[in-house]
Amino acid sequence: MPLSVDVGHSSLTGPRERNEDFCGMVTPQGAELENKGLIAAVADGIGGHKGGREAAEYTVRGLLSDYYATPDTWSVPHALEKIVVPLNRWVMAEAGRQPDLAGMATTLTVLVLRGRRYVCAHVGDSRLYLLRDGVCTRLTSDHVWEHPELKNVLSRAVGLDRHFQLDFVDGELQAGDCFVLCSDGVWGPLGSGRMRTVLLAHPDAQQAAASLTSLALAADGQDNASAVVLRVTGLPPENLRDSLEGIARLPLPPRFKPGQDFDGLLIDEVLHDSRATLLYRVTDQLSGQQLVLKTLRPELADDADEIRALIMEEWRARRIVSPFFAQLVPADRRSCLYYLQTWHEGATLQRMLDADIHFTVADAVQHGIRLMKGLSTLHRLDVAHRDIKPANIHIGRDGRLRILDLGVALSLSEDEATAGSPGTPSYMAPELFAGDKAGPAHDLYAAGVTLYHLLTRKYPYGEIEPFQHPRFGEPVPPTRYRPDIPGWLENVLLKAVARDPAQRFETAEEFLLALERGASRPLNRPPVTPLAMRNPLLTWRIIAGLSLVTNLLLLMLLTR
Fold it and tell me: What is the CATH number of the domain that holds 326?
C-alpha cells in the first residue's frame, strides 16, 4: 500500500487589492511517490505592487517543478536547500534589476511526506501545524525581529538576504496525522485553538482548508488568507531508507564455506575476507545465475554503525543503474542481512598489475575515458566513491570497465560528522591529510593517481604508508619513469594530481574531455607552485641563511 494523503487547499484575497499569497502541491504516483514523496508549499509575498506575488509564485512553482528533478540519492533537506538557495538569488537579482519589484521577498513553508516520515523546510512567518491525537502543535518558528516595534518585520525570507538559511523539522508519520501549512492571514486571526476546532469538525481536507481561510477573513482578517491541509489516511510499508532499524533486525549470516547452500543460494567460493566484510561468489539455484553476495563478518552483529553502512551501501547500489557498475539483484528470500549483485568474469586492474601485465599508453587512455564516464554517472547522483584505486576497478571479459565497492561511498547529503575521509593513503589528495572531507573532486585525484600508477608502477608523490603524515612537494613527471608517455598525457596526469586543488580538473566531464581530445588539443603543463607557497618556513630559512652569509662576507671585506 502506498502513502495515502487527502489534500485540500484554499487561498482568498480578502480586503487586499491583490492576493500576494501562493500555494501549491504535487501528489505523484508510483515510483516517484516512493522515491521523492508528496510536496506542498505556502508562500506569502512581501514588497507591494506585483513584487510580492511574483516572488511567492515563482518560488513555489520553481520549487515544485525542480524537486522531482533532483537525484533520488539526495536527502529531502539537501534537495530542498539545493533548490531554494538559487531561487533566493533569483528573487534578489530581479528585485535589483526591475525598479517596480524593489524590496520583493517571500516567506516559504514546505512540507514533504515520503514513506513514513515528514520533512519541513521553513523561512519567514508562514507556519506549519500538526494535529495528532486531538492536539494541535506548531512545528515552525517565526523569523521576525524580537523588538516589540518590529515584531511584524521579517528577519529572514526568500529574497531578503544573500546569506540565506532554511530551518528544517522532521519526524515520523502516524496514520490520522493532519498537517496545516498557512500564511499569517490564517493563523493570526484564528490561533491554534480555533484551527484545531475547524480541523476536528471537517474530516475532509478540502472543506477544512476552505473553512480555515473563510473563517480567518470573517474574524476581521486584514490580509490574504491561504491554507493547505494534508490528512494522512494510509502509510506504506517500511522501506529501506526510512526504516533502517527494521532491516537491521535481520541477523548476520554465519561464515560460509564453499558447497553450503541457504536461501536458495549455493556458495561457490570466498572472494574477499576483510576486517569488516565478506564477499562470496554464489549461484542462484533457481535461475542458475552467478551472483556476488556481500555481508558482514558474524562478530560484527552488535556493531550498529557497520550494519547501517551495509544497508546504506545496498540503498546506493539500488539507485545506480549504469553499465559502469555491477547491478543489484533483488533478494526476496533473504533470511539474513546481505545483498546480491551481478557477477562478471574478469579481473581488477590491481590483479593485472600483480600479474605484471604491461599497460600501453592507449590502454591507460581507454581505461581513463571509461573510468571518467563511470565517475560522471556517480557524481551526477551526488555520490562520492572515496576509494578509487586499481583494486576497485574491474575489467570484465566483455571488455567493460566497472567500478567496484561502494562500501565507503557517501551521498553528500548525509551527515558530514560521520563522513570522515576513508581511502588508500597513496591515492588520497594532500588536503585530506590536513582534515578535509573527501568528495567527488578527490575521486578525480585518485583516478589520476590510478592512471599514473598503471603506466609507471610508481606514485606521483611516492608511496604513502597508513598513519603516515607526508609532506608534498611537486609531483614527479611520469616521463621520468617512462619516457614513451606523450607530453599531452603527462600534462593531463600532472593536472589531475596537482598539489593545489585549484589547479586540478573540476569535474569528471572536464577530465574526460582532456583524455578524449588528447594530442589534438593538448593541455598546457600545470604551473609549478613557488617554493614560498609550498614551504614558507624553508623559504625564510634560506633567506635568513643567505642574509647571514652576505653579512659575514661584508664584515670580512670591511675588516681587511
Answer: 3.30.200.20
